[in-house]
Amino acid sequence: MSTSTKPDASGSANQNTRRSTVNRLSAENVTLAYDQRVIAEQLSVEIPDNSFTVIVGPNACGKSTLLRALSRMLKPSQGRVLLDGQVIQSMPAKKVARTLGLLPQSSIAPDGITVADLVGRGRYPHQGILRQWSAEDERVVQESMAQTGVAELADRYVDELSGGQRQRVWIAMALAQQTPLLLLDEPTTYLDIQHQIDVLDLCAELHETQGRTLVAVLHDLNHAARYATHLVALRGGRVIAEGAPNDIVTAELVEEVFGLRCQIIDDPETGTPLVVPAARKARLTAAS
Amino acid sequence: MKTLSRSRAVRTPGGLSLRLDVRALIVVVLLLAAALAAGVALIGTGDAKIPASDVLETLAGNGTAYQDFIVNELRLPRVLVGLLVGASLGLGGALFQAVSRNPLGSPDVLGLSQGSTAGALVVIVLMSGSATQVTVGALIGGLVTGLAIYLLAWKQGVHGYRLVLVGIGVSAIVTAVNGYLLTKADLVDAARAVVWMTGSLNGRDWEQVWPLLWLCAVLVPLVLAGARGLRMMEMGDDVANALGVRVQRVRLVLMVCAVLLTATATAAAGPVSFVALTAPQLARRLTRSPGPNLVPSLCMGATLLVTADWASQRAFGADQLPVGVVTGVLGGGYLLWLLVTERRAGRI
């Protein structure tokens, strides 16, 4: 479990202290490319410790690519990703896996696997040939299932579950990995609205009660603004703005990042910024 | 506290813990027992019939000189080759299917067997080589085909569909080459080639046993060491990576092992059809456990091959019917039956 303290309430006052300390995870001047296709150049991002960082941006802005680089799925062609002061590629794979967890989009539940067995696989980086299933493994798996509310589904087959339940099970698997840092690649995609909120509430809870550092890529800007303590807005592989949502989400920023005219109002529930796209007519007259 | 389904953990005070899947363990024990029983029955079968009790006595070193010759010199090597070939094909097939995440990603479908056949045919038809030379030719053919498939399918790691499609393409080309070689052959060579191509254990002796045994002794532990990583790779490369598996390395090592196992087994007994495809599927359905089921597949392969050989000798007389004919019918039929009954039971 993370030894870090509970996160401070987010806000601009916190910004300076964050900048001056060395964070556990950061990307320094990375160039990210698939084969010859360059997604981002000279990109630098710091993930503040104990934050719930959300990366947003239009399609193909490089947000998932950045997450892949941060989780050492993609090796930067230039620059480096640092985890606890070390270049992430140079660290032993299992050691990284005990510090940093990732919930990718492309996960496949094996045929005929039960919830408990799938969650149990999250214990892999803590196991070895002679230490295959300790009492600690058992305890952590039970705990992870309880935290994500899937304990009563333990003996069910994963293929029988609804999309929302299944996503909770995958999150439980990532939790069983017991990493202080957890990266989630679009965890709400393909879910109904109530399950989207459900998953985000779970993330917020993990962040607040356990002090884990969460990094998520989200599509929905309003969800991002509501749940993030630290927001990173990307466009064309560059960071356009980063900081607390209340500080950085403005109509200008949304227009610059997404090319969308909008109004920003206070979310009546939480007071966080709420993006209201301008009416079609207003956008058409502005364009002409 | 509730224990996790199906598996039992065995723990020692020293911090050692092993996880056992009880059902898989039972399946493995039963399959081994079946393989050994079929092996004993097979030794007793033939022109000179020997009761099982005498076979066991002779194997323990207490038989007459006559029995000793028949059992230890003539028939035991054949059974051992059968067991080892079956085990290698079962394990190789399970590895291929797990890495490609596709039951069609079997050596039979990917063209490895056809590659071995091409190697053997070149030796038989063009060089009229000896049995040993045919074995070497088949081995080279299998390894070259394995390498070709791997190089052609390699792009950011081997993806399942790509591997299967490339394999099918390679298979088609090699099959065409084989057809051409057969038409060039004279009648004697062609007859020899066809027997080889069906897969047969006839006339196998200790010379075939030792290389197979050494190879298995090296490769099986290597494969089992990578099995835990392979289990994680079932959930996708990204998840496995995130869990700390060196996906590319594990995959490369396991593919090389699988190609070696399959090519050697095929070189020893010919392309015995369907074992590599069916054994892992049958094993998985018996254990009902997710994961690559490597050990159950290995045992299933051995059982399937020796049982098929015994059945072919019982039904058609000694050395009348190559074992590959029976594995095709037996394995295929059993798999269809399982699929039909499972469909009724609501499982796929």
Automatic annotation (TrEMBL), chain B:
- Where on the tree of life does the source sit, at the highest rank? Bacteria
- Molecular-function annotations in GO: transmembrane transporter activity
**Which UniProt key words apply to this protein?**
Cell membrane, Membrane, Transmembrane, Transmembrane helix, Transport
Q: Which InterPro entries match?
A: ABC_BtuC-like, ABC_transptr_permease_BtuC
Q: Where in the cell is it found?
A: Cell membrane
Q: Does the keyword Transport apply?
A: yes
Q: Name one Pfam family in it.
A: FecCD
Is the keyword Oxidoreductase assigned to this protein? Answer: no
Task: Tell me what topology the record assigns in the membrane.
Answer: Multi-pass membrane protein
Q: Which GO terms describe its biological process?
A: siderophore-iron import into cell
Question: Which stretches are transmembrane?
Answer: 20-43, 79-97, 109-128, 134-153, 160-182, 212-231, 252-274, 323-340
Q: Which GO terms describe its cellular component?
A: plasma membrane
Family per record:
Belongs to the binding-protein-dependent transport system permease family. FecCD subfamily.
Query: What is the name of the protein in this document?
Result: Iron ABC transporter permease
Q: Per the UniProt entry, what species is this protein from, by scientific name?
A: Streptomyces cellostaticus
